[in-house]
Amino acid sequence: MYDFESFDMTPVAKTADVIYYNGIIFTADAANQVCSALAVGQGYVLAVGDNEQVLALATPTTERIDLHGKMMMPGLIDSHMHPFWGGKQLKGCSLHYAALTVEQTLQHIQAHLDKYPAHDDNEWLTVRAWQRQAMVPVGADMSRAVLDTLNTRRPVALFSNDCHTLAANSRALQMLGIDENTPVPPDGKIARGANGQLTGILEDAPAMRAFDSIPSGTAEQNVQIAAHVQQVLHSQGVTTVMDTRVFAEQLAAFAALRERGDLTLRVLGAKEVTPDSVQGPEDAARAVQEVVAFAKQWGDKEWTPQAGIAVDHLKLFVDGVLQPPTMTAALLRPYREHHGEMPGERYGDLYFTTPVLNALMVECGRAGLHPHTHTVGDGAIEQVLDAVELMRAACPGKDIRPGLAHNELVAAHQYARFAELGATAVLSFQWAGLPGVLIDEEREMLGEERFPHLEPAARFLDAGARVAYGSDWPIDRLDEWYNLQVGMTRRAWDSEGNPAGPRLDNDRNLTLIETLRAATIDAAYMIAKEQYIGSLEVGKFADAIVLQQNLFEQPAEKLYQTRIERTLVGGRVVYQA
Phi-psi bin for 478: left (phi > 0), alpha (psi -120 to 50), beta? Predict the structure, then answer.
């Protein structure tokens, strides 16, 4: 059934500590080869090949593990997520992404307030996984006035599941230092009503910055969150993550685990540069050098089989959100705001001026930092690709790996530009699993000409561009294999494995190999660590997972049932079912 090719048997360690054999081992190498055995020595892949070849390396001290036909593959690399945010959500008050009414939301929050009383009235209640978009279509929304009806004097803040909206009660606004005199920044909104009073709604960067400023737990509590997060991720087969908006607080928690010898997750970070922190193009070099200094402070000087930390990326939020009511994603042509009518005047928002973005991109190239951008609409994508083109011209031959994340609406000519400029499309595949009502709404909002380029995936690959997978957790619930299934089916599924909506029929399905590569070797390339991880090849770190299912023998619609039996990081077993 499987064509076991000949493999490089060049040793990288003197002895095999453990040999896995009699399996279906997908290597994710350049030829997508499959082998039956793999040897691990000193945390590295020592050899891959057939059973006879690899078992010949065994010594009396070598552990032999019979896979009994189970599948083994590289560990998943989630190249766009917010693990510490997600960890806090696992521990606190969550609305669990449910489509709740305003009344149901208030009932849930009040129940939490009653069950978990605070020590004093200054203790924040942050509520996560709020699905705001479920309220607005029925003519409702959360607000300061509504939250003020809760029976509490505590500051209360709801953070939307897309992390682009925060709703605050009056006490929270007061403690955040936001009032009617607070200026609206260039990269988001502080909503006001017709009377000029604050509604309590913050959108895009103001929402994120406000959420970040809310007091967190103690340093030790943060370490416990980090420890819990890495185990939750390992149980889904994740061995490496990139936190695409990283702060010292998160890195301090993971670094504490590293110092204790308890860090088992490879953690990369992208440090954000905000529009209001750069005074003009001439200020870009200073802003980039601050990220370089941050990276030197927190990143490991070298990568070894033992899990570590790296900060090699710079994050830029270039636009906002596509879906109503926000519609701040930047488009090349305006939104069709009224169904059946001509386009309106809204193009969305570009948060950086073109001169500043161009200067930041060029300085990234000069400094050797990899730019990672939030680009939802085709207008933002165009601005970033233009900047990447300038960077390539200014830094010829420099190995810089631009990643453009989300790309929910792409212009037809942009796929080829991704390939030509060596830019990676970083995609959350589950975003193609839209309910029918939202598919119809977005078709109307965009028009027939643009609709084929909504939530694309295979179109990038067919144009020769690279795709890397990133879950964007906790924007969505953490379910890695469900997300990969949507990439292969382009439709949503319910918990019983039944279709939960129509197929988004404007792109082809990804193949299994394409999907797995996006979450392994191609993600490793985007984060510039493919020389260490992402495939099971001789000389690389032994980051691997053993599955309870053979993915090559099950239909795409069953991928969500995938369960992890064992997760290895640097050859070390960090999770066992």
Answer: beta
Cβ atoms 144, 178 nearer than 8 A = no
Helix, strand, or coil (residue 412): coil
Assess contact for 67 and 23: CB atoms under 8 A.
yes
CA distance linking residue 520 with residue 517, whole number of Å: 5
Q: Which two tokens stand for residue 458?
A: 């295979």
Of the candidates 209, 213, 184, 212, the residue with the CA atom closest to the CA atom of residue 199: 184
The structure tokens listed for 565 are 């039996």
Cβ atoms 375, 384 nearer than 8 A:
yes
Reading the chain (577 residues) residue by residue, the pLDDT tens digits are: 333 344 444 445 578 999 999 999 999 999 999 999 999 999 999 999 999 999 999 999 999 999 999 999 999 999 999 999 888 877 778 888 888 899 999 999 999 999 998 888 999 998 988 888 766 555 578 999 999 999 999 999 998 877 789 999 999 999 999 999 998 888 888 999 988 899 999 988 888 888 888 877 789 999 999 999 999 999 999 999 999 999 999 999 999 999 999 999 999 999 999 999 999 999 999 999 999 999 999 999 999 999 999 999 999 999 999 987 778 999 999 998 655 556 678 899 999 999 999 999 999 999 999 999 999 999 999 999 999 999 999 999 999 999 999 999 999 999 999 999 999 999 999 999 999 988 998 998 899 999 999 999 999 999 999 999 999 999 889 999 999 999 999 999 998 999 999 999 999 999 999 999 999 999 999 999 999 999 999 999 999 999 999 999 999 999 999 999 999 999 999 999 9
N- to C-terminal Cα distance for the chain?
28
Gyration radius (Cα) of the chain, Å: 24
Residues in contact with 59: Cβ distance below 8 Å, sequence separation at least 6, in sequence order: 15, 16
The answer to whether the beta carbons of residues 70 and 25 sit under 8 Å apart is no
Asked whether 329 and 408 are in contact (CB, 8 A), the reply is yes
Distance CA 410, CA 397 (A): 27
CA distances from 16 to 33, 212, 542 (A): 22, 46, 12
- Would you state the structure tokens that stand for residue 507, as one six-digit string? 């792109």
Q: Is 309 helix (H, G, I), strand (E, B) or coil?
A: strand
Determine the distance from the C-alpha atom of residue 170 to the mean position of all C-alpha atoms in its chain, rounded to a whole number. Answer: 32
Residue 305 carries which DSSP code? S
Handedness of CA 418, 419, 422, 427 (dihedral sign): positive
Give the separation between CA 288 and CA 300, rounded to whole angstroms: 19
Domains and CATH numbers, the chain: 18-74+540-576 (2.30.40.10), 98-160+163-213 (3.10.310.70), 219-526 (3.20.20.140)
Q: What is the pTM of this model?
A: 0.89
SS3 annotation, 125-192: EEEEEECHHHCHHHCCCCCHHHHCCCCCCCCEEEEECCCCEEEECHHHHHHHCCCCCCCCCCCEEEEE
Helix, strand, coil proportions of the chain in percent (round to 5)? 35, 20, 45
